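Box S2. Input/output pair 1.
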Amino acid sequence: MEKSMAYLQGAIVPGIAFIVFLLMWGLTASQIQTSLGVVPGPIQVWEQMRVLVDEHVTERNKAEAFYLRQDARNAKKLEKNPDAKIKIRDYTGKPTFFDQVFTSIYTVASGFIIASLFAIPIGVACGISITLYRAINPLIQIFKPVSPLAWLPIVTIIVSAVYVSDDPMFSKSYLTSAITVTLCCIWPTIINTAVGVTSIDKDLLNVGRVLRLGWWTKVVKIVLPASVPMMFAGLRVSLGIGWMVLIAAEMLAQNPGLGKFVWDEFQNGSSNSLARIMVAVFVIGVIGFMLDKLMLMLQKSVSWDKSLELR
């Protein structure tokens, strides 16, 4: 009986809510007239999703044909002259919707990982040392509320001035977006990690003193495991902020990614643009949901208390 109720709450109830949402959307969308036509309903949005899939498949086929022609041309050239210099070029077709999705995921992952690598040690250090916390806290409180739209021009100008290379490893647009994400999602992890460390049960710390654990051993064996819940709370908030910031940054700076796709469709102004933007909105939401689930799974795998119910 309990299993049936759990299944009902976990699968059927959200399913019913989603169906009700689609019905409400379908009924109200047709009543709203915009400059691009009637607001698309679920069916029109699904059709555009299929069109985007077809466009991606077509573009991949073009790329495959391009590389086959290039290989055949180079093989023919080498057959005539084994010492001939062959040219290998990358396919430069227009990025598809799914290429933009991959670019955004890759960029937000880069910015989030870099932010976490800095934020977790700083948060642990601030939690252990009250002096360090008092020194850094004013800077955190000043920079934490700064909008990504304010960071973006600064980062763009600095990257353009500093990152100068004839053979760059990364594009400037990628660096600009990733650094902006890093600057905006570093603060919640620092704060939550510091709070998690300072709220560790004093009995645990006293056990460490009794056992005469060294500083590093105390951090690894007591501080980090005990602060995992608060640390991951900060990481989840940071990742959510980073994902939202990235989309806004891509729209504003016209950097490759989902934000640019949305802005390009808005500028395009075709009859299908609104439905294609809605596809992007759903994909952005689904990816954000999946990223949060991924963090929950990671937290569960590293948490010492496996019976803890995570939400």
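Box S3. Input/output pair 2.
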Amino acid sequence: MSEIRKTDILVVGGGAAGLSAAAEAASLGAKVTVLESDLHLGGQLVKQTHKFFGSKDEHAGTRGYKIADIILDEIRACGDKVEAFTNTSVIGYYKNDGIVTVMRGEEEYYKLLPKKIVMATGAQERIIPFPNNDIPGVYGAGAVQTLMNVYGVVPGKRVLMIGAGNIGLIVSYQLMQAGVEIAAVLEALPKIGGYWVHAAKIRRLGVPILLRHTIKAALGADMVDGAVVQDIETGELSHVECDVICLAVGLTPTNEMLWQAGCEMRYIPQLCGHVPLRDPKLRTSHPDIWIAGDAAGIEEASSAMVEGRIAGLAAAQSLGFKADEGKFDEYHERLAALRRGEAGEKIRSGLALAQVDDWRDE
């Protein structure tokens, strides 16, 4: 067994939140290790070819993959303070001694002892049950984005999109940009969940968005060649010709490591699943673990980046690195701006259930 490696701050996850946390902590002088299970850093930002909304501080008007480059440049400017490893997974946390076990590729296994941890583990796609949902041609929206925007491969010729949230609408538009036909977008709810600007784009291009409709079954023996669709109000069934069924039916926070660490968790539907309770600086009930991004509750990438900065700043501060308290105020103001209005109501109500004023310290 190799010796135990050490670092000041371990960031689990090299996406929008994790990279932002690493940049912030390293800027104060902390030695940071970033572990990313994917083959590249940047997480979902790398797949996002659309321009971001929001404010200048969150790079509004810049495409997602370029934002990843901006944060990576910020990390490089910190010199040797940040070590980042891709194709590397955290597979266990041992709360008795704080040891984290790590697997890099398929051969290298080692132990790491961080002083503090920022969990930025992101989210996983949900799937819905229907007959034949396991045959080739049924994809999650994240998989479709990876195929197209990372590897340059279109998944098929005619897609039935399930879900009219932001992901379903944006991926539909990206598919059309790649020359793929969208047969329809189905949404079980009585209203579109995503931004109207995204819905308007694909409607102008002739794509029907069918509210109160759902998929009844995928058709095909060896691969998808159609789908049965049902009108939820009338029960009427219809047939849709397609070779791809794309599921954009939501995300669930990925937080197995937080359960292992014994963090106090709560099921909060508005945040899309079990999430850890956290204080205003995003520290969990575990004194050495902070959270950021979708692991803390499903939100837009802009919010994940700001949360990452708060968590990175707070983790470094806890180690004695000097942090400007005014920065926390600035980041909280930016988060509040991102979460204001009707669009942020669900998030605000969920966060009210997840946040504690302070932990009674150990």
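Caption for Box S3: The two ends are 33 Å apart (CA to CA). Residues 25 and 220 are 51 Å apart (CA to CA).
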